[in-house]
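Entry for adenosine-5'-diphosphate complex. Fields follow.
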Amino acid sequence: KKRAAQQRFICQAQIEGKACDAKSGQTFAVINPATDQILAQVAECGDDEVERAVRAARRAYQRGIWARQSPTARKAVLLRLSELIMQHRDELALLDSLSMGKPVVEAWQLDIPGTAHFFSWYAESLDKIYGQVAPTAADAVATVTRSPLGVVAAIVPWNFPLEMAAWKVAPALAAGNSVLLKPAEQSPFSALRLAELALEAGIPEGVFNVLPGTGAVTGQALGRHPDIDCLVFTGSTRTGKRLMEYAGQSNLKQVWLECGGKSPNLIFADCHDLGLAAENAARAIFYNQGEVCSANSRLLVERPVYEAVVERLIALAAEWTPGDPLDPNSRAGAMVDARQTAKVMDSIAEARRQGARLVCGGERLTINGVTNYIQPTIFTDVAPDSLLAREEIFGPVLAVQPFDSEQQAIAMANDSHYGLAASVWSGSLNRAHRVAQALEVGTVSVNTVDALDICVPFGGGKQSGFGRDLSLHSFDKYTQLKTTWIQLH
Ligand code: ADP
Protein backbone atom coordinates (compact mmCIF):
# COMPACT_ATOMS: atom_id res chain seq x y z
CA LYS A 1 0.00 0.00 0.00
CA LYS A 2 2.81 2.30 1.00
CA ARG A 3 4.60 1.53 -2.26
CA ALA A 4 1.46 2.26 -4.28
CA ALA A 5 1.15 5.65 -2.58
CA GLN A 6 4.77 6.47 -3.26
CA GLN A 7 4.43 5.56 -6.89
CA ARG A 8 2.32 8.66 -7.43
CA PHE A 9 5.37 10.90 -7.30
CA ILE A 10 6.29 11.28 -10.93
CA CYS A 11 9.41 13.04 -12.14
CA GLN A 12 9.39 14.29 -15.68
CA ALA A 13 12.05 14.77 -18.33
CA GLN A 14 13.31 18.29 -19.13
CA ILE A 15 13.13 18.99 -22.84
CA GLU A 16 13.27 22.43 -24.44
CA GLY A 17 12.69 24.16 -21.15
CA LYS A 18 9.63 22.13 -20.25
CA ALA A 19 8.92 19.23 -17.95
CA CYS A 20 7.29 16.41 -19.87
CA ASP A 21 6.18 12.80 -19.58
CA ALA A 22 7.28 10.07 -21.95
CA LYS A 23 4.84 9.70 -24.83
CA SER A 24 4.86 5.96 -24.23
CA GLY A 25 3.76 6.57 -20.65
CA GLN A 26 6.72 4.49 -19.52
CA THR A 27 8.25 5.23 -16.14
CA PHE A 28 10.90 3.56 -14.03
CA ALA A 29 11.23 3.45 -10.25
CA VAL A 30 14.11 5.05 -8.41
CA ILE A 31 14.71 3.28 -5.12
CA ASN A 32 16.50 4.58 -2.04
CA PRO A 33 19.09 1.87 -1.32
CA ALA A 34 19.17 2.83 2.37
CA THR A 35 15.44 2.16 2.84
CA ASP A 36 14.55 -0.05 -0.14
CA GLN A 37 11.61 2.31 -0.74
CA ILE A 38 10.61 3.91 -4.01
CA LEU A 39 11.52 7.60 -4.08
CA ALA A 40 9.70 8.37 -7.31
CA GLN A 41 8.62 7.07 -10.66
CA VAL A 42 10.52 8.83 -13.42
CA ALA A 43 9.55 9.29 -17.06
CA GLU A 44 11.58 6.99 -19.28
CA CYS A 45 12.56 8.81 -22.44
CA GLY A 46 12.18 6.69 -25.57
CA ASP A 47 12.76 7.35 -29.26
CA ASP A 48 10.07 10.07 -29.30
CA GLU A 49 11.63 12.13 -26.52
CA VAL A 50 15.17 11.66 -27.81
CA GLU A 51 14.03 12.80 -31.25
CA ARG A 52 12.27 15.82 -29.80
CA ALA A 53 15.23 16.76 -27.64
CA VAL A 54 17.76 16.37 -30.46
CA ARG A 55 15.62 18.58 -32.72
CA ALA A 56 15.26 21.20 -30.00
CA ALA A 57 18.99 21.13 -29.33
CA ARG A 58 19.84 21.35 -33.02
CA ARG A 59 17.36 24.20 -33.55
CA ALA A 60 18.81 26.12 -30.60
CA TYR A 61 22.29 25.59 -31.97
CA GLN A 62 21.43 26.69 -35.47
CA ARG A 63 19.60 29.76 -34.26
CA GLY A 64 22.74 30.67 -32.34
CA ILE A 65 20.83 31.60 -29.21
CA TRP A 66 23.65 30.16 -27.12
CA ALA A 67 26.58 29.39 -29.41
CA ARG A 68 26.65 32.89 -30.89
CA GLN A 69 26.03 34.82 -27.71
CA SER A 70 29.10 36.79 -26.77
CA PRO A 71 31.56 34.87 -24.59
CA THR A 72 31.02 37.46 -21.87
CA ALA A 73 27.29 36.79 -21.90
CA ARG A 74 27.72 33.01 -21.79
CA LYS A 75 30.21 33.38 -19.00
CA ALA A 76 27.77 35.41 -16.91
CA VAL A 77 25.05 32.78 -17.31
CA LEU A 78 27.32 29.88 -16.34
CA LEU A 79 28.63 31.82 -13.33
CA ARG A 80 25.05 32.41 -12.27
CA LEU A 81 24.38 28.67 -12.62
CA SER A 82 27.39 27.95 -10.43
CA GLU A 83 25.97 30.28 -7.78
CA LEU A 84 22.54 28.64 -7.98
CA ILE A 85 24.12 25.21 -7.48
CA MET A 86 25.71 26.46 -4.25
CA GLN A 87 22.44 28.07 -3.16
CA HIS A 88 20.77 24.65 -3.58
CA ARG A 89 23.64 22.74 -2.01
CA ASP A 90 21.56 21.03 0.71
CA GLU A 91 18.89 19.90 -1.68
CA LEU A 92 21.26 18.62 -4.38
CA ALA A 93 23.42 16.76 -1.84
CA LEU A 94 20.32 15.12 -0.41
CA LEU A 95 19.01 14.08 -3.83
CA ASP A 96 22.28 12.33 -4.67
CA SER A 97 22.59 10.69 -1.26
CA LEU A 98 18.99 9.44 -1.22
CA SER A 99 19.20 7.92 -4.67
CA MET A 100 22.61 6.23 -4.59
CA GLY A 101 23.44 5.80 -0.92
CA LYS A 102 26.56 7.90 -0.40
CA PRO A 103 26.89 9.79 2.91
CA VAL A 104 25.00 13.05 2.52
CA VAL A 105 27.86 14.87 4.26
CA GLU A 106 30.25 13.63 1.56
CA ALA A 107 27.98 14.94 -1.21
CA TRP A 108 27.56 18.24 0.60
CA GLN A 109 31.25 18.74 1.31
CA LEU A 110 32.71 17.52 -1.97
CA ASP A 111 30.34 16.69 -4.82
CA ILE A 112 28.14 19.78 -4.85
CA PRO A 113 30.86 22.44 -4.31
CA GLY A 114 32.95 20.51 -6.86
CA THR A 115 30.11 20.74 -9.35
CA ALA A 116 29.67 24.47 -8.76
CA HIS A 117 33.42 24.94 -9.19
CA PHE A 118 33.42 23.11 -12.53
CA PHE A 119 30.79 25.49 -13.86
CA SER A 120 32.59 28.60 -12.64
CA TRP A 121 35.99 27.32 -13.85
CA TYR A 122 34.75 26.63 -17.38
CA ALA A 123 32.76 29.88 -17.35
CA GLU A 124 35.97 31.74 -16.58
CA SER A 125 37.90 29.77 -19.19
CA LEU A 126 35.62 30.13 -22.18
CA ASP A 127 36.78 33.62 -23.14
CA LYS A 128 40.45 32.76 -22.81
CA ILE A 129 40.71 30.33 -25.69
CA TYR A 130 42.53 32.13 -28.44
CA GLY A 131 42.92 30.97 -32.03
CA GLN A 132 46.13 30.90 -34.05
CA VAL A 133 47.47 32.53 -37.17
CA ALA A 134 49.49 29.99 -39.13
CA PRO A 135 52.63 30.89 -41.12
CA THR A 136 51.56 29.62 -44.54
CA ALA A 137 52.32 31.91 -47.48
CA ALA A 138 53.24 35.56 -47.84
CA ASP A 139 50.07 36.29 -49.78
CA ALA A 140 47.71 34.52 -47.39
CA VAL A 141 46.44 34.71 -43.88
CA ALA A 142 45.47 31.35 -42.39
CA THR A 143 43.68 31.21 -39.08
CA VAL A 144 42.98 28.19 -36.93
CA THR A 145 40.05 28.71 -34.62
CA ARG A 146 37.85 26.55 -32.43
CA SER A 147 34.14 26.26 -32.99
CA PRO A 148 31.53 24.23 -31.14
CA LEU A 149 30.47 20.84 -32.50
CA GLY A 150 26.70 21.37 -32.31
CA VAL A 151 24.78 18.75 -30.35
CA VAL A 152 26.59 16.86 -27.60
CA ALA A 153 25.08 13.95 -25.66
CA ALA A 154 26.45 12.94 -22.26
CA ILE A 155 25.71 9.58 -20.65
CA VAL A 156 26.85 9.48 -17.05
CA PRO A 157 26.98 7.02 -14.14
CA TRP A 158 25.51 7.04 -10.65
CA ASN A 159 28.62 7.07 -8.43
CA PHE A 160 28.96 10.88 -8.38
CA PRO A 161 25.65 11.73 -10.06
CA LEU A 162 25.83 15.52 -10.32
CA GLU A 163 29.59 15.82 -10.42
CA MET A 164 30.03 13.34 -13.29
CA ALA A 165 27.34 15.23 -15.19
CA ALA A 166 29.19 18.51 -14.57
CA TRP A 167 32.49 17.08 -15.86
CA LYS A 168 30.80 16.83 -19.26
CA VAL A 169 28.06 19.45 -19.24
CA ALA A 170 30.10 22.41 -17.97
CA PRO A 171 32.80 22.40 -20.69
CA ALA A 172 30.34 21.33 -23.40
CA LEU A 173 28.08 24.30 -22.64
CA ALA A 174 31.01 26.65 -22.13
CA ALA A 175 32.22 25.76 -25.63
CA GLY A 176 28.83 26.76 -27.06
CA ASN A 177 27.22 23.40 -27.74
CA SER A 178 23.67 22.28 -27.11
CA VAL A 179 23.67 19.42 -24.63
CA LEU A 180 21.54 16.34 -23.94
CA LEU A 181 22.24 14.70 -20.60
CA LYS A 182 21.21 11.18 -19.66
CA PRO A 183 21.79 10.56 -15.98
CA ALA A 184 22.02 6.98 -14.70
CA GLU A 185 18.64 5.40 -14.01
CA GLN A 186 19.61 4.97 -10.34
CA SER A 187 20.19 8.70 -9.76
CA PRO A 188 18.37 11.06 -12.14
CA PHE A 189 17.11 13.69 -9.67
CA SER A 190 20.03 16.08 -9.33
CA ALA A 191 20.43 16.22 -13.12
CA LEU A 192 16.74 17.08 -13.54
CA ARG A 193 17.08 19.77 -10.90
CA LEU A 194 20.17 21.08 -12.70
CA ALA A 195 18.05 21.56 -15.83
CA GLU A 196 15.65 23.77 -13.85
CA LEU A 197 18.49 25.76 -12.35
CA ALA A 198 20.06 26.16 -15.80
CA LEU A 199 16.86 27.77 -17.07
CA GLU A 200 16.74 30.03 -14.05
CA ALA A 201 20.35 31.03 -14.71
CA GLY A 202 19.42 32.07 -18.24
CA ILE A 203 20.47 29.15 -20.44
CA PRO A 204 18.06 29.39 -23.37
CA GLU A 205 15.39 26.73 -23.89
CA GLY A 206 16.58 23.75 -25.89
CA VAL A 207 20.26 24.31 -25.09
CA PHE A 208 20.32 21.97 -22.10
CA ASN A 209 17.97 18.99 -21.94
CA VAL A 210 17.86 16.13 -19.46
CA LEU A 211 16.55 12.76 -20.59
CA PRO A 212 16.13 10.26 -17.78
CA GLY A 213 15.85 6.58 -18.66
CA THR A 214 17.57 3.25 -18.69
CA GLY A 215 20.69 2.50 -20.68
CA ALA A 216 18.95 -0.02 -22.90
CA VAL A 217 16.19 2.40 -23.93
CA THR A 218 17.29 6.02 -23.57
CA GLY A 219 21.03 5.46 -23.71
CA GLN A 220 20.77 3.31 -26.79
CA ALA A 221 18.44 5.79 -28.52
CA LEU A 222 21.02 8.54 -27.95
CA GLY A 223 23.87 6.31 -29.09
CA ARG A 224 22.11 5.44 -32.32
CA HIS A 225 20.70 8.87 -33.14
CA PRO A 226 22.06 10.15 -36.46
CA ASP A 227 21.97 13.86 -35.59
CA ILE A 228 24.13 13.92 -32.47
CA ASP A 229 27.66 15.16 -33.17
CA CYS A 230 29.46 13.89 -30.13
CA LEU A 231 28.75 11.42 -27.37
CA VAL A 232 30.69 11.58 -24.11
CA PHE A 233 30.46 8.81 -21.58
CA THR A 234 31.59 7.70 -18.17
CA GLY A 235 30.67 4.15 -17.19
CA SER A 236 31.59 0.54 -17.76
CA THR A 237 33.89 -0.72 -20.49
CA ARG A 238 31.08 -3.03 -21.65
CA THR A 239 28.78 -0.08 -22.33
CA GLY A 240 31.63 1.96 -23.83
CA LYS A 241 32.14 -0.74 -26.45
CA ARG A 242 28.43 -0.68 -27.28
CA LEU A 243 28.48 3.09 -27.75
CA MET A 244 31.28 2.79 -30.28
CA GLU A 245 29.25 0.19 -32.16
CA TYR A 246 26.21 2.47 -32.21
CA ALA A 247 28.33 5.32 -33.53
CA GLY A 248 29.74 3.12 -36.26
CA GLN A 249 26.29 1.95 -37.23
CA SER A 250 24.77 5.43 -37.28
CA ASN A 251 26.52 8.68 -38.16
CA LEU A 252 30.08 8.19 -36.93
CA LYS A 253 29.47 10.63 -34.11
CA GLN A 254 32.57 11.34 -32.08
CA VAL A 255 32.71 9.10 -29.02
CA TRP A 256 34.81 9.82 -25.93
CA LEU A 257 34.94 7.21 -23.20
CA GLU A 258 35.96 7.18 -19.57
CA CYS A 259 35.47 3.56 -18.56
CA GLY A 260 36.55 1.36 -15.71
CA GLY A 261 39.83 0.73 -13.99
CA LYS A 262 41.75 -1.72 -11.84
CA SER A 263 44.18 0.90 -10.67
CA PRO A 264 47.34 -0.27 -8.89
CA ASN A 265 48.79 1.38 -5.82
CA LEU A 266 52.50 0.59 -5.40
CA ILE A 267 54.06 0.91 -1.96
CA PHE A 268 57.86 0.58 -1.94
CA ALA A 269 59.85 -0.24 1.17
CA ASP A 270 61.62 3.14 0.90
CA CYS A 271 58.30 4.97 1.36
CA HIS A 272 58.87 7.88 3.74
CA ASP A 273 55.70 7.36 5.78
CA LEU A 274 54.06 3.94 5.74
CA GLY A 275 51.29 5.08 8.06
CA LEU A 276 50.28 7.79 5.61
CA ALA A 277 50.50 5.36 2.71
CA ALA A 278 48.23 2.88 4.49
CA GLU A 279 45.71 5.61 5.38
CA ASN A 280 45.58 6.75 1.78
CA ALA A 281 45.35 3.20 0.48
CA ALA A 282 42.31 2.63 2.70
CA ARG A 283 40.70 5.87 1.64
CA ALA A 284 41.32 5.16 -2.05
CA ILE A 285 39.43 1.88 -2.00
CA PHE A 286 36.82 2.43 0.71
CA TYR A 287 35.76 6.00 -0.05
CA ASN A 288 32.36 6.25 -1.80
CA GLN A 289 31.79 2.55 -0.95
CA GLY A 290 34.54 1.66 -3.42
CA GLU A 291 32.26 2.79 -6.24
CA VAL A 292 34.97 4.85 -7.93
CA CYS A 293 36.46 4.17 -11.36
CA SER A 294 39.93 5.21 -10.22
CA ALA A 295 39.73 3.44 -6.83
CA ASN A 296 43.13 1.90 -6.14
CA SER A 297 41.67 -1.60 -6.02
CA ARG A 298 45.03 -3.39 -6.38
CA LEU A 299 47.60 -2.78 -3.67
CA LEU A 300 51.12 -3.95 -4.52
CA VAL A 301 53.50 -3.86 -1.55
CA GLU A 302 57.23 -4.55 -1.47
CA ARG A 303 57.92 -7.69 0.54
CA PRO A 304 59.88 -6.18 3.51
CA VAL A 305 56.95 -3.92 4.48
CA TYR A 306 54.13 -6.19 3.29
CA GLU A 307 53.05 -7.59 6.67
CA ALA A 308 53.24 -4.18 8.36
CA VAL A 309 51.11 -2.50 5.68
CA VAL A 310 48.48 -5.25 5.70
CA GLU A 311 48.26 -5.05 9.48
CA ARG A 312 47.71 -1.30 9.40
CA LEU A 313 45.14 -1.60 6.66
CA ILE A 314 43.11 -4.12 8.61
CA ALA A 315 43.02 -1.69 11.55
CA LEU A 316 42.09 1.25 9.31
CA ALA A 317 39.33 -0.62 7.46
CA ALA A 318 37.08 -0.46 10.53
CA GLU A 319 36.91 3.35 10.16
CA TRP A 320 35.17 2.81 6.82
CA THR A 321 32.42 0.55 8.13
CA PRO A 322 29.31 1.81 6.38
CA GLY A 323 26.46 3.50 8.19
CA ASP A 324 23.16 5.24 7.46
CA PRO A 325 23.92 7.73 4.63
CA LEU A 326 21.98 10.44 6.47
CA ASP A 327 24.01 10.02 9.67
CA PRO A 328 26.67 12.75 9.66
CA ASN A 329 29.16 10.34 11.23
CA SER A 330 29.04 7.83 8.38
CA ARG A 331 32.16 7.79 6.23
CA ALA A 332 30.64 5.22 3.87
CA GLY A 333 27.01 4.54 3.06
CA ALA A 334 24.84 2.07 1.18
CA MET A 335 25.78 0.46 -2.10
CA VAL A 336 23.88 1.99 -5.02
CA ASP A 337 21.29 -0.79 -5.21
CA ALA A 338 20.53 -4.40 -4.35
CA ARG A 339 21.87 -5.56 -7.72
CA GLN A 340 25.27 -3.97 -7.24
CA THR A 341 25.41 -5.28 -3.66
CA ALA A 342 24.76 -8.81 -4.91
CA LYS A 343 27.32 -8.38 -7.70
CA VAL A 344 30.04 -7.32 -5.26
CA MET A 345 29.13 -10.16 -2.88
CA ASP A 346 29.42 -12.62 -5.80
CA SER A 347 32.90 -11.27 -6.55
CA ILE A 348 33.87 -11.77 -2.89
CA ALA A 349 32.61 -15.37 -3.02
CA GLU A 350 34.48 -15.96 -6.28
CA ALA A 351 37.71 -14.53 -4.81
CA ARG A 352 37.43 -16.99 -1.92
CA ARG A 353 36.79 -19.87 -4.32
CA GLN A 354 39.88 -18.88 -6.29
CA GLY A 355 42.00 -19.15 -3.15
CA ALA A 356 42.53 -15.55 -2.05
CA ARG A 357 42.84 -15.10 1.72
CA LEU A 358 40.15 -12.95 3.32
CA VAL A 359 41.82 -10.98 6.10
CA CYS A 360 39.10 -8.44 6.79
CA GLY A 361 35.37 -7.90 6.16
CA GLY A 362 33.67 -9.84 3.40
CA GLU A 363 30.14 -9.68 4.83
CA ARG A 364 26.95 -7.89 4.00
CA LEU A 365 25.67 -5.62 6.77
CA THR A 366 22.10 -4.84 7.77
CA ILE A 367 21.37 -1.25 8.78
CA ASN A 368 17.86 -0.08 9.65
CA GLY A 369 16.62 -3.45 8.38
CA VAL A 370 18.15 -2.97 4.92
CA THR A 371 20.96 -5.18 3.59
CA ASN A 372 22.56 -3.01 0.87
CA TYR A 373 25.77 -2.50 2.84
CA ILE A 374 29.12 -4.24 2.55
CA GLN A 375 31.97 -4.33 5.05
CA PRO A 376 35.33 -2.94 3.96
CA THR A 377 37.00 -6.07 2.62
CA ILE A 378 40.66 -7.00 2.17
CA PHE A 379 42.11 -10.05 0.44
CA THR A 380 45.75 -11.12 0.43
CA ASP A 381 47.41 -13.99 -1.47
CA VAL A 382 45.61 -12.84 -4.60
CA ALA A 383 46.59 -14.87 -7.67
CA PRO A 384 47.60 -12.66 -10.64
CA ASP A 385 45.18 -14.35 -13.04
CA SER A 386 42.21 -14.36 -10.65
CA LEU A 387 39.08 -12.32 -11.19
CA LEU A 388 39.91 -10.27 -8.11
CA ALA A 389 43.28 -9.23 -9.57
CA ARG A 390 41.92 -8.48 -13.04
CA GLU A 391 38.32 -7.30 -13.01
CA GLU A 392 36.84 -4.10 -11.68
CA ILE A 393 34.57 -4.92 -8.75
CA PHE A 394 33.25 -1.43 -8.01
CA GLY A 395 32.86 -2.06 -4.32
CA PRO A 396 34.92 -1.83 -1.09
CA VAL A 397 37.16 -4.78 -1.93
CA LEU A 398 40.94 -4.52 -1.92
CA ALA A 399 43.33 -7.07 -3.48
CA VAL A 400 46.81 -7.04 -1.91
CA GLN A 401 49.82 -8.62 -3.59
CA PRO A 402 53.53 -8.62 -2.61
CA PHE A 403 56.41 -7.82 -4.96
CA ASP A 404 60.19 -8.25 -4.76
CA SER A 405 61.66 -5.71 -7.18
CA GLU A 406 60.82 -2.47 -8.95
CA GLN A 407 60.77 -4.27 -12.27
CA GLN A 408 58.33 -6.85 -11.01
CA ALA A 409 56.10 -4.15 -9.51
CA ILE A 410 55.93 -2.32 -12.84
CA ALA A 411 55.20 -5.52 -14.73
CA MET A 412 52.42 -6.44 -12.30
CA ALA A 413 50.96 -2.93 -12.43
CA ASN A 414 50.89 -2.92 -16.22
CA ASP A 415 49.52 -6.45 -16.50
CA SER A 416 45.96 -5.20 -16.90
CA HIS A 417 43.58 -4.41 -19.72
CA TYR A 418 42.79 -1.20 -17.88
CA GLY A 419 44.99 1.90 -17.84
CA LEU A 420 43.27 4.63 -15.87
CA ALA A 421 45.33 5.61 -12.84
CA ALA A 422 48.05 4.45 -10.46
CA SER A 423 49.74 5.53 -7.24
CA VAL A 424 53.36 5.21 -6.22
CA TRP A 425 54.74 5.54 -2.70
CA SER A 426 58.48 6.01 -2.43
CA GLY A 427 60.93 8.35 -0.70
CA SER A 428 63.21 8.22 -3.71
CA LEU A 429 62.69 10.91 -6.32
CA ASN A 430 64.52 8.84 -8.90
CA ARG A 431 62.39 5.81 -8.32
CA ALA A 432 59.17 7.83 -8.33
CA HIS A 433 60.03 9.30 -11.73
CA ARG A 434 61.22 5.99 -13.17
CA VAL A 435 58.10 4.14 -12.10
CA ALA A 436 55.74 6.96 -13.08
CA GLN A 437 57.22 6.97 -16.58
CA ALA A 438 56.84 3.22 -16.93
CA LEU A 439 53.21 2.97 -15.79
CA GLU A 440 50.68 2.65 -18.63
CA VAL A 441 48.00 4.92 -17.17
CA GLY A 442 46.53 8.41 -17.59
CA THR A 443 47.28 9.69 -14.08
CA VAL A 444 50.05 8.75 -11.66
CA SER A 445 49.77 9.99 -8.09
CA VAL A 446 53.08 10.04 -6.25
CA ASN A 447 52.98 9.90 -2.45
CA THR A 448 49.25 10.49 -2.57
CA VAL A 449 46.26 8.74 -4.12
CA ASP A 450 43.73 9.71 -6.74
CA ALA A 451 45.29 13.07 -7.61
CA LEU A 452 42.37 14.94 -9.09
CA ASP A 453 41.98 18.62 -9.80
CA ILE A 454 40.12 20.61 -12.39
CA CYS A 455 43.47 22.03 -13.57
CA VAL A 456 44.80 18.64 -14.71
CA PRO A 457 43.33 16.24 -17.27
CA PHE A 458 41.73 12.98 -16.15
CA GLY A 459 41.22 9.86 -18.27
CA GLY A 460 42.93 6.69 -19.31
CA GLY A 461 44.17 4.39 -22.01
CA LYS A 462 43.73 0.73 -22.93
CA GLN A 463 40.17 -0.38 -22.13
CA SER A 464 39.74 2.44 -19.63
CA GLY A 465 38.83 4.56 -22.64
CA PHE A 466 40.25 7.62 -24.32
CA GLY A 467 39.83 11.36 -24.21
CA ARG A 468 40.33 13.55 -21.19
CA ASP A 469 37.93 15.23 -18.80
CA LEU A 470 38.77 18.34 -16.77
CA SER A 471 41.33 21.06 -17.52
CA LEU A 472 41.48 23.12 -20.71
CA HIS A 473 42.18 19.88 -22.63
CA SER A 474 38.52 19.03 -22.14
CA PHE A 475 37.70 21.65 -24.78
CA ASP A 476 39.42 19.41 -27.35
CA LYS A 477 36.38 17.13 -27.14
CA TYR A 478 33.75 19.84 -27.36
CA THR A 479 35.20 21.97 -30.14
CA GLN A 480 36.51 21.39 -33.61
CA LEU A 481 39.41 23.16 -35.21
CA LYS A 482 38.58 25.27 -38.20
CA THR A 483 41.15 26.45 -40.69
CA THR A 484 40.27 29.58 -42.63
CA TRP A 485 42.64 30.45 -45.46
CA ILE A 486 42.34 33.96 -46.79
CA GLN A 487 44.14 34.53 -50.05
CA LEU A 488 45.35 38.11 -50.40
CA HIS A 489 44.93 39.65 -53.87
P1 ADP B 1 27.33 0.52 -14.32
O1 ADP B 1 27.44 -0.96 -14.60
O2 ADP B 1 28.36 1.04 -13.42
O3 ADP B 1 25.95 0.98 -13.99
P2 ADP B 1 26.96 1.31 -17.03
O4 ADP B 1 27.97 1.42 -18.11
O5 ADP B 1 25.93 0.22 -17.16
O6 ADP B 1 27.75 1.20 -15.69
O7 ADP B 1 26.17 2.67 -16.85
C1 ADP B 1 26.70 3.96 -17.07
C2 ADP B 1 25.70 4.74 -17.89
O8 ADP B 1 25.55 4.09 -19.15
C3 ADP B 1 24.31 4.82 -17.29
O9 ADP B 1 23.76 6.10 -17.53
C4 ADP B 1 23.55 3.75 -18.05
O10 ADP B 1 22.17 3.98 -18.12
C5 ADP B 1 24.19 3.87 -19.41
N1 ADP B 1 24.03 2.66 -20.25
C6 ADP B 1 24.00 1.37 -19.85
N2 ADP B 1 23.83 0.55 -20.90
C7 ADP B 1 23.73 1.32 -22.00
C8 ADP B 1 23.55 1.08 -23.42
N3 ADP B 1 23.42 -0.15 -23.90
N4 ADP B 1 23.52 2.15 -24.24
C9 ADP B 1 23.69 3.40 -23.77
N5 ADP B 1 23.84 3.70 -22.48
C10 ADP B 1 23.86 2.68 -21.59
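NOTE: The first strand starts at residue 10 and ends at 11.
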